[in-house]
Write a structure and sequence with these properties.
Length: 223
């Protein structure tokens, strides 16, 4: 399945060889933004574990097909997302409820604040929401899969969920988090790499290496 025409697509490949130690990479969009860790919380996108010996190779695809979605958080702080509503930066939508509490719908997008995604909660109740993106998948059930990237906790009726989307991906050496986990606090370790994905080519490959003497890692873009 192909992406929607005009969509920015970034296919990322991560590879390793004989690291000498099992190593986990965490990918998340947690660049600095207003209200981060107060009203807006990053969501772990990908967690990849590379083997101690031999070759490791994994792939991930990002697109700028952005959308708001209903969101529930489980006991393990993992997000489950449901109906999503496509929106572009600079647009606003209004969320309402139909006949049932589970029948969430959105109005056609209108102009909002430049560079920001905005969803007004007009459902009559508090809502948990997420902003994320969809990527094409090979499936008979659905042509796209939605990945939450930012979580808005308890958006009150009559208020807005607003975020300035920054497609800045950070990569960490972290093994204690899971995919779709909401980060309630910043990751303690420093990122080993960060980049605005819109500045990359459509296909990019990265090498993860570990020095067997010092134990230090290097993460480099090869093409």
């Amino acid at each position: 399945m192909s992406a929607i025409p005009g969509t920015i697509v970034r296919n990322l490949t991560f590879q390793s060889n004989d690291l000498g130690e099992e190593t986990t990479l965490l990918l998340v969009f947690d660049a600095d933004m207003e209200d981060l860790y107060e009203k807006i919380y990053p969501v772990v996108w990908k967690v990849f574990t590379f083997p101690k010996t031999g070759q490791g190779r994994v792939q991930a695809t990002y697109t700028n097909d952005l959308a708001f979605a209903e969101a529930d958080v489980t006991d393990e702080n993992l997000i489950q997302s449901y109906t999503d509503f496509q929106l572009k930066p600079g647009q606003k939508t209004t969320l309402t409820l139909g006949d049932g509490a589970d029948n969430l719908s959105s109005s056609p997008p209108v102009d909002g604040t430049k560079g920001y995604l905005t969803a007004e909660n007009n459902t009559g109740i508090i809502q948990d929401l997420a902003v994320g993106f969809s990527t094409p998948v090979q499936s008979l059930l659905t042509p796209f899969m939605y990945f939450p990237a930012l979580f808005f906790k308890e958006v009150e009726d009559g208020s807005n969920a607003t975020a300035q989307w920054k497609p800045v991906l950070r990569v960490y050496l972290e093994s204690k988090y899971q995919e779709t986990e909401v980060l309630v606090d910043a990751i303690n370790s420093a990122a080993i790499w960060e980049q605005d994905l819109h500045q990359l080519f459509r296909n990019t490959t990265f090498n993860l290496e570990r020095d067997s003497v010092t134990g230090r890692y290097t993460f480099t873009k090869t093409k």
